[in-house]
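cache lookup: miss for this entity combination. No prior model stored, computing from scratch. Input as submitted by user K.M.:
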Amino acid sequence: MSKPYSHASTHTPSSSSEARFLHLQSANNSLIVQLDPVPAIVYWGSQFNRDHALSQEMFDAPVGQARLDSHIPLALCPEQGRGDFGSPGIEGHRNGKDWGPVFQLTAVTDSLSSATLTLSDPRAALEINIYLELDEDTDVLMLKQQLINIGCNNYTVNRFALTLPFDETFSDIITFHGRWSHEFQTQRTPLEHSGFIQENRRGRTSHESFPGIIALPPSSNDLTGDVLGMHFGWSGNHRLQARVKSDGRRYLQAEALLAPGEVVLAPCESFETPTMYAVFTSHGLNSMMQKFHQYVRSSVLHFPQSMVRPVHFNTWEGMYFDHQPQRIMDMASAVARLGVERFILDDGWFLNRDGETRALGDWRVDKRKYPDGLKPVVDHINQLGMEFGLWVEPEMVSKDSIVFREHPDWMLGLDTLGYTQPSGRYQYVLDLQNLDAYHYLLVSLDTLLTEHNIAYLKWDMNRELVQAGHALSAAYHGQTLALYKLIDDLKARHPYVEIESCASGGGRIDYEVLKRTHRFWTSDCNDALERQTIQHGMQYFFPPEVMGSHIGPRQSHTTRRCHDMSFRGITALFGHMGAELDPVGLEDNELRAFARYIGLHKQYRPLLHHGNCFNLPSHDPNTRIHGVTDDTVTLLAVAQLAMPKYAQGGRLRLPVLCPDKRYRIDILDAPSAFSSTMKHKPAWMVKPLTFQGDQLIRIGLSLPIMDPESAMLLSFTLV
Ligand code: DGJ
């Protein structure tokens, strides 16, 4: 018989040979941790009754020939020394010794939804705390670990990883890859043997390797089936793995990827992993996405849900480095008339910043460009009823800058050893663990925020870390922690200033940076076609209100593609909307169109920023159908990304509606080209009609014939 632990209790495990279990629960799920011989998650899935004791026999496994003589559990912290041949949870040494620790559970503290497990190996003089917490409402699991050096000399940490097993039937994984202007590309592949590994060594979350993996059975899709989604909340180097053991057991592993000698624990010092966030659901990818969104809204973001996110205008693609106060004020007047609510002055405002090769680090207003400072511009913007935001890139330094000339030693690197590191965008990185550099930045930013009425900072980071040395030791990890501290310290001084996390677009998008910022610049690519894919990938983990999404000019600056206003407007509508172009001199019809999409965004903003997002299947892989719903209104976009595969658009079925309710369909926006793609439109497109929910769910409606790179916006309203 097992003895489930009682709630909110602290235990010292007995030496009894009986197996003991923890049964944690959240709204829909149960998570079972078997405590002996070493803590291991043996079940995470749909909830079952915790009143009945679990028996060890249920988990007893056969032992095959030519293997170790006992079954080795897949532990929360797998140990080579215990006989686990997979990827260990801990690797390190003490001057070449204490490299193979085997831990014993020494204490457990648990409640209905959380547990802290303490493990110790006195021979290696190491202790581990494993923290497990289920968010009771959203089912999100948070997993984190701490390693403590209880010895009397230094312990070098090579690896310290979080391990999450998943079911053998989950033989597909969805992973994320990309590059600048092409972030969050998804890849769904079978996971049969061996495994998948993703290493990010770029020193920021990166465009290339978003730290997330989704594992699922091949039959699972947006609407149905089991899904396990995992995100590793960390803005630095990482290693993610999805592994299949030779016996078929599977697990995800996530860790901060450490450079040699980067983490050395002195006696009594500890090292913490970042947090792994995971969701299990048996209702498909939409359910996983909605749970992550709810969790971000309730537990990651420090942004009151009652606050409205203003529509942005950003100057970057409208004027780049060509800053002229009068021109900026003209831009502000023009965009205020369109309904913009916050004006962000991008790169180019500070001392000698005439192009990308110089001046980073000199965070003072350039009096050549702004003889009277920024105040007249800010005042003008405020008088128009808009908030003012300012671009900064605090972690960076140009060699052609006053700060670098005065403090070359503030640069992150190994230059004193004679190495030459490559520049990135002609710039270098300030060593945030250098206290003088750190203090200089904090004071510079504090002064800017104190002297100007700044509601918003766009915090950019435009290069990767190479040879990141602090006092000659590797400093990738420490630099990331110091960045968090810098933002935290600044926020403590200016709690009401909102911050956007940008890194050449989507190079720093993760939950840990979002804890201290408010939205992301999703991508430098404002091309609506590219944005459809980027936003789709990002939205698995992030709700639309943190996804900066701008309407750009007709011709995209990053791809040279041209798109009509409708495709651009509908695409930007489903995020945190903004505009980014030179509005002065735009033709009246283009200006009216901008105002219209901004108006639509404001009209539906409460729904867009608080509703439940979903994706729907289509018979055409080039058709993306997605939307957002609350109890009364469903807003839906149908985007045709490439030439339709078939002559007919297929059927639109809406399982997100209530079967016993009736809905009116309105076409809020459609491409003007519809008149040439169809001689006859489906009846529901000609006049507003109402339909019964169960019929829309089961039978659905014929979709129109659409041109490539066009979109249509519909609403379904309860009648
Ligand atoms: C990269 C950002 O992603 C752009 O939006 C812009 O802010 C530039 N940096 C400015 O240098």
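stored under new cache key. Confidence is low (pLDDT under 50) at residues 1-8, 12-17.
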